[in-house]
Amino acid sequence: MSFQKDFLWCVGGAAAQQDGGYLDGGKGLNIWDALSEGHVKNNDNCHVACDHFHKWKEDLQLVKELGVNSYRFSVSLARIYPKDEFTVNEEGVKFYTDLVAELEQLGIEPICTLYHWDMPLWLYERGGWKTQLAVEWFERFTKTIVEAISDKVKYWLTFNEPQIFVGHGYQIGKHAPFEKLSQKELQNISRNVMLAHGRAVRVIKKYAKLSPKIGFASTCDVLLPLDGDDEEKAYLASFAGTRSGVYTPSWWCDPMLAGKKPNGCDWLSEEDLKEIYEPLDFAAYNIYNAQHTEEFKYSYAGMPLTDMGWSITPECMYYSAKFMYRRYGLPIMITENGMANIDFVYEDGKVHDPQRSEYLRTHIRNLKCATDEGVPVIGYSCWSFMDNFEWSEGYGKRFGLVYVDYRTQKRIVKDSAYTFRDIIKLNGENL
Ligand code: NOJ
């Protein structure tokens, strides 16, 4: 089997990581704009980032050049609602109607993420995800966006990696808003995010002009079988609900994708589950590598690592697709996969990144093996379209297919982008 004919080949980015223009166009502050100081390497911040807010048209031309047929972006919530839960910034809305109109012109399918971690500051100051206000407002925000762009957008992701923005943001204090809360408080936040998700899905279904396809982008820290015959064990351990609290994929996926309580959960009621669960069209997840535990230990001395220090395990693509499909029974969409590499401009003015080319080839080939075994996979999105603000790592980590010189905002297409383009051209047949 091959990848399906209308497979979504995609590149992605997120507002806080690439847009910049942090005070332009009537935008309000978000928690990353306002609270990062002292928490990000080299004192970097996301105020200018890749200046995509001003360069978006040229950037979309580049997206087109990469040969992809879809593009994943997120909406800057504080650009739409800069100061309170009622006041819509029409200029902010226009940024997105223009963006999707241009994508339509270019023949590129938009995939819109509603929440990629940049909570408006006003909402945070009024309690954010600790409160019902956030749940209710998120529903309103979703309606505003859906009314504005759903004539051109079919694919929707409500949340990006709730595991990380809740875990890093409220448990270990590594991401904005840099808090360290108790388990009980984390459960309350998780519940509110899940309820907001349920409401958003219903709003999309109710108001979307094009028939929508809806999901959310989970993490997927799958465990790898150590040898062929313990696949079952790896499957069960991968979804053990209490393995790592809010970081566990099934903590979120069981309620949101299947309407079930994750193992060991006593903080969601049956009523909650009904509100949280609204059938989704695909199981989307971001995956960079496999996890390991004492029991599933595949790391070894000298194991190759990316510039993030993440081990390189292409089989994670095969097993994650199989496991996620087995558990949730929905078509799979890979919403992020890629690597940070030590990229720099060579004397010839180009960026040669053979490691990333190899990473893409091997990971996509493993994904294809899952489709060979009958797992329906509808899309693959490389993270990221261009280098950008890697949260608490600042600009030092480069994930892009396009290099960004932050001094000049010059973009250089990296070699790996051409590898990706060749894979896309043949719909993966050359793998
Ligand atoms: C997942 C997040 O969604 C994205 O924002 C981040 O840049 C990548 N992982 C790489 O860490």
Question: What is the compact description of this entry?
Answer:
This protein is α/β, with parallel strands linked by helices. Helices cover 40% and strands 13% of the residues.
What does this structure look like?
The chain is an alpha/beta fold. It has helices at residues 15-18, 31-35, 52-65, 77-80, 90-106, 121-125, 132-149, 162-171, 183-207, 231-238, 249-258, 270-276, 315-328, 354-372, 415-425; strands at 8-12, 70-74, 109-115, 155-160, 213-219, 283-286, 332-337, 377-383, 402-405, 410-413. The strands form two sheets. Strands 1-2-3-4-5-6-7-8 form an eight-stranded parallel barrel, surrounded by six helices. Strands 9-10 form a two-stranded antiparallel sheet. Strand 7 (332-337), helix 14 (354-372) and strand 8 form a beta-alpha-beta unit. The mean pLDDT is 96. It binds 1-deoxynojirimycin. The site of 1-deoxynojirimycin has 9 residues, from loops.
Strand content is 5-15%
Instruction: Look at the structure and give the mean pLDDT.
Output: 96
Gross morphology is: globular
Bound molecules: 1-deoxynojirimycin
Q: Uncertain runs with pLDDT below 50, 5 residues or more?
A: none
Mind telling me the C-alpha Rg? 20 Å
Largest sheet: 8 strands, parallel, barrel
| Number of strand segments | 10
Discrete helix count: 15
Main sheet: which strands, in order across?
Answer: 1-2-3-4-5-6-7-8
What share of the residues lie within helices?
A: 25-40%
- Output the structural class: alpha/beta
How do the SSEs run, as a string of H and E? EHHHEHHEHHEHHEHHHEHEHEEEH
Measured between the Cα atoms of the first and last residue, the distance is: 12 Å
